[in-house]
From TrEMBL:
Name by which UniProt lists this protein: Autoinducer 2 import system permease protein LsrD
Organism: Mesorhizobium metallidurans STM 2683
Keyword Hydrolase carried by entry: yes
Cellular component, GO annotation: plasma membrane
Transmembrane segments: 21-43, 55-75, 82-98, 104-126, 133-153, 173-195, 226-245, 257-273, 280-302, 308-329
Length: 331
């Protein structure tokens, strides 16, 4: 008998119930507690519409890239190339608009298509060449970093960025809501519908739950896993585009830090509502916890290093909570 099972039998029914509630709702309770605490400590700065809108706007890009990563993780793989890919896409779209004078819609389509191709390459290496996804995507990400520096010669593309491109991210085209928030809602809403409300989503979840059983049931496991990587790559491309628009420049390492943020949100989300399962709604909750945590630190004037400490701690706690949820589910 496993140590988990032995420990579980020693727990009282009340303790088991508390652990079950904590595993499912602990992240949501933590998010609400964080908001209430910050609101009490800073009643004039934190609990305002402008601040909440700013938090969502700042976190929207992390939510988009984390949403794509969720699809890769749901099918049982990891995509470590997303941050490096987003940086490359940001440089590429800036170059296409500034240097090649391409229309912005055409440049956006080209870059998102490239994101899909990168995801396709990742998926092919993992499913057909049988390279572990961590090694495969880390290797691809390193190659993309080299390509980003080669394309830009290591110099940010800043001069000549048109105002119309800046408005992709900075504009408010619908009801005064920042464009990034609208795009984030559309992306996460679409991913949630795909995974939770379609036959294809059932296949995605089946592959993530048990790939062998899914294959015996007639599911094309390789196709589903490649699809997960393709969606992850497209979300990384969209994140790079919007980040370049927000910054008004293309920089070789601008989006690298989104990798850690995305993983922290995804793993923290797996401890939300479900017993250690990865899902889009959970990723949204995880990203909100990180975003409001950073916002609170900024409001109270915490030094920059504390943000890295918080993010690393959240990732460790998130993985621990996910493991707890899975252990309780197995018990």
């Amino acid at each position: 008998m496993s140590d988990v099972a032995i420990s579980a039998r020693r727990l009282s029914p009340g303790t088991k119930a508390v652990l079950g509630i904590f595993a499912r709702y602990g992240t949501i309770i933590g998010l609400l507690a964080m908001i209430v605490t910050f609101s009490i400590l800073s009643p004039h700065a934190f609990p305002t519409v402008n601040n909440f809108t700013n938090v969502l706007n700042q976190a929207s890009l992390a939510m988009i890239i984390a949403g794509g990563l969720t699809l890769a993780v749901v099918v049982g793989e990891l995509d470590l190339s997303i941050g490096f890919a987003a940086s490359l896409h940001g440089i590429l779209i800036t170059g296409l608009v500034v240097h090649d004078k391409l229309p912005i819609p055409l440049a956006v389509v080209i870059v998102i298509a490239l994101g899909a191709v990168i995801g396709l390459v990742n998926g092919f290496i993992v499913t057909k060449v049988k390279v572990n996804s961590v090694i495969a995507t880390l290797g691809v990400g390193t190659i993309l970093t080299g390509l980003a520096f080669a394309y830009s010669a290591g110099v940010p593309i800043v001069a000549g960025v048109p105002e119309a491109f800046l408005q992709l991210s900075l504009g408010r085209w619908l009801f005064g809501i920042p464009n990034n928030i609208i795009v984030m809602i559309l992306v996460l809403g679409g991913l949630w519908l795909l995974v939770e409300r379609t036959p294809l989503g059932q296949e995605i979840q089946a592959v993530g739950g048990n790939a062998v059983a899914a294959r015996l049931a007639g599911v094309n496991v390789d196709r589903i896993k490649i699809l997960g990587f393709v969606i992850s790559g497209m979300c990384a491309a969209l994140t790079g585009i919007l980040l370049a628009s927000r910054l008004g420049s293309g920089t070789a390492s601008a989006a690298d830090s989104y990798l850690l943020t995305a993983f922290a949100a995804v793993f923290l989300g797996s401890a939300t509502l479900r017993d250690g399962e990865f899902h889009v709604l959970g990723t949204l909750v995880g990203a909100l916890i990180i975003a409001f945590g950073f916002n609170g630190l900024n409001i109270f004037g915490a030094p920059t290093f504390s943000q890295y400490v918080l993010q690393g701690a959240i990732l460790i706690i998130a993985v621990g909570m996910a493991s707890l949820g899975r252990s309780l589910a197995e018990r």
